[in-house]
Specification:
Length: 320
């Protein structure tokens, strides 16, 4: 008789490893201290961040981010107003517009044990959802410095993988990582996830977002979800890595706290989105929560092969 050995996901994961040569390095105290500081002394934390930001290598470029425009685009991306309203993650500037935001994000991801910034974890779950498909084109919305985007490019080496984000410094940092790692099938562009009209309808085999929906007001996160559905080919799977809904009074209290504290200023608006229900309302098929672990959730759904989601939504509205 064989005994089935239970291997936890933690065991399956390999360490993130050393950052590539030339990556700006974090030289401060452990991130747990940073988080503690941001919880109890947010103002002090902001001052400290500002000083540290200045010490980090800058990822500066043209003010309109024209260096990050996709080929053939004639207009720089438009920023939605909310992007300038509130700083997120206790960063000193709104919307990741500081030229040192990218490097900061990079070093944070190398230090933190945050579940879905670990390439092995992301890879594991993408494989669970997408199996052994061979996509030709994939998009990662709100790619940041490319945590998910690089995994997609590795998983599907023959696929053109596009990451879009609104933070120029994140994108410049991501491009530099791509250069350092010699990844050729990855492209990073400056674009609002709520308006990807540069890309035609149904032009991607894989559409994914990672942790952006909770960083915007509900009216915009709804626009992003609809844009994701528009971009997906009929019959293809779409994935959302994001925060789970608050499922207990304690959890809700914690979300209210982080919203009030300012590290996730849009958290309560995100809860209003009710992502999974919204996907069902929009007419997506096989809506399922693939995994929930702490502050992480992966949701997958299929765009109907025949009926466009917008039609389903229109029908729903007419029926009510
Ligand atoms: C928490 S980070 C996640 C980054 C990356 N996906 C990851 O998992 O590490 C959220 C990202 O969303 C981006 N973002 C916020 N609003 C956006 C929008 N409307 N369009 C595109 N990106 C946006 C921010 O600039 C930031 O890089």
């Amino acid at each position: 008789m064989t005994t089935k050995q239970k291997v936890s996901l933690e065991e399956k994961m390999t360490p993130v490893g050393k950052p590539p040569e030339g990556t700006p390095q974090y030289a401060g105290p452990p991130m747990t201290f940073e988080l503690w500081l941001s919880k109890y002394f947010p103002t002090l934390q902001r001052i400290k961040q500002r000083i540290k930001f200045r010490l980090l290598e800058q990822m500066d470029g043209p003010f309109d981010a024209s260096d990050l425009m996709p080929p053939g685009a004639t207009q720089p991306a438009k920023y939605p107003a909310y992007f300038f309203m509130k700083p997120v993650h206790t960063f000193p500037t709104p919307g990741g517009l500081d030229p040192a935001f990218g490097p900061y994000h990079g070093e944070f991801q190398q230090r933190t044990t945050f579940y879905f910034t670990k390439p092995e974890t992301i890879k594991y779950w993408l494989q669970q959802v997408y199996g052994d498909i061979k996509p030709q084109r994939a998009i990662d919305l709100g790619c940041g410095i490319g945590a998910t985007t690089f995994v997609m490019a590795e998983l599907w080496p023959d696929c053109e993988v596009i990451g879009i984000d609104l933070s120029p410094s994140n994108l410049r940092y991501a491009r530099r990582l791509a250069e350092q790692r010699g990844v050729k099938n990855i492209f990073f562009y400056h674009m609002d996830a709520g308006d990807c009209s540069y890309f035609p309808d149904a032009s991607f085999d894989v559409v994914n977002e990672s942790y952006i929906l909770h960083e915007m007001p509900t009216y915009h996160s709804r626009a992003v979800v609809k844009e994701m559905i528009r971009l997906a080919k009929p019959g293809s799977i779409i994935t959302w890595f994001d925060w789970p809904p608050a499922e207990s009074p304690g959890d809700l209290a914690r979300r209210e706290e982080i919203a009030k504290r300012g590290s996730e200023p849009f958290m309560l608006q995100y809860l209003d989105l009710r992502l999974e229900q919204y996907l069902v309302e929009l007419g997506l098929e096989d809506v399922r929560r693939v995994v929930r672990a702490g502050a992480n959730m992966l949701v997958a759904a299929r765009k109907p092969a025949h009926q466009p989601a917008e039609t389903a939504e229109r029908e729903l509205v007419t029926a009510s």
